[in-house]
Amino acid sequence: MPPAAGPRPGPVPPPPREPARPPKRVDPVPGTPFGVVHLDVPPVTSGLAIGSLVTGIAAILVSLLVLCFGLAGPDYGGAWAAGAFTVLGALAGTAAIVAGLLARRQIRRPAPPPAVRFTGNGLAVAGLSCGGAGLLLSLLGLGLALVVQLTW
Q1: Whole-number Cα distances in Å, 59 to 88, 90, 100
Q2: pTM metric for this prediction
């Protein structure tokens, strides 16, 4: 079998060494010279908080689309298009609010030492506010679209 064409890769460098973490505590095992080492678990950013913020921003962007269709008038779909996008904006805003509330509950929950601690309270609050703003702006855009449709 002929050798593979192309340059051969050089030696692969070893992965970077992470600094040694001091143990949180060491429990001796009775009757042996051994012990159980408990390491500190670093906190993790809550995925629910990140999802809440992303969904809240999406709800605001969709609500801007609802406002654009509402102001465009009946020539470009008007209230029908705004209504369709209002459903999407309302669903995204509601999802952001629910995910933000669940994330705040997850972050506030006390965790015993071996469990993972979650952070990201600010992300969750931002997701809550963006989701609420997106939901309200979508509904206001639909109302504006209906008013423009009826008066046009």
Answers
A1: 8, 7, 14
A2: 0.76
